Protein: Dipeptide transport system permease protein DppC
Organism: Devosia equisanguinis
Amino acid sequence: MTMTNTSTTAPSLAPADLKPAQRTWRAFRRNPLGMGSAAVILIMVVIAILAPLLAAFPSGYGTEILVPPSPAHPFGTDDLGRDVLAQVIWGTRISMIIGFASSFLAILIGVALGILAAYAKRLDAPISMLVDVSLALPVLPLMILVAALVGPSVTTLVMVIALFSWPEVTRIVRSQALSVTRLPYVDAARTIGGSHFWIMTRHLLPAVAPIIVVSVVLTASRAVMSEAGLSFLGLGDPESWSWGKILFNAQRSGALTVAWWCTLFPSLAILLLVVSSTLVSIAYNDARNPKTREN
């Protein structure tokens, strides 16, 4: 008498049976660059949250001035003997706060105006003209002017960066929402008496949600670069640390040319965030596109 062992396995959903979000996540997980970049961004967020536990706030003076990287100071010290690693860790917190806060405001303004321009035809022309004019302005000189007039602070940096970041979001959201306004279910919503606000929030906003996800990541990384540029010019918050302020201190003290470690590590942090954000957005777009993702 022979006995046969039967094993049961949990049924797995076929790609056609998955929801669009599940198919996107499944394709995104297969992209090593996308997953690795997302892990880098997540690590930076964790460092920003746990900064007080990872390093003491860099303040005061130290006795070890311009010491190269060593076991005691892995990133070296600056011209005042402060640990550069602690500066980079605390700079991660402020840079990420400014990046995501300004990105949130820019996305909020850009999505609202983009959906409004696509849905309300009478407002399309003036909003589009406002976007074109805003994109044609010299952004960096205006950011410097506004930041210098208002005064350096974290709030000022967030408001200034958001003020000059929303037009591109508006243009992208408007182009995506325009294709949705022509679909039959939007006309059906108007026919049954749905309010304009209900149609925009119920039908147009979910349709542009994937674009918002990409815009948040890219806008945040660009905001970090803008903050670094303003802080490097001396327009950052003097009472807090950011990656741009580390570079500003190195330039002001003359360590920019004699102590490479004072500029290398904050520059690498900025580069790592920008590259990771770009790769995440590319991987996400590929995962959403049925022509490029693999089932």
Q: What stands out?
A: Residues 19-56+81-288 form a domain with the MetI-like fold fold (CATH 1.10.3720.10). The chain has one domain: 19-56+81-288. The two ends are 44 Å apart (CA to CA).
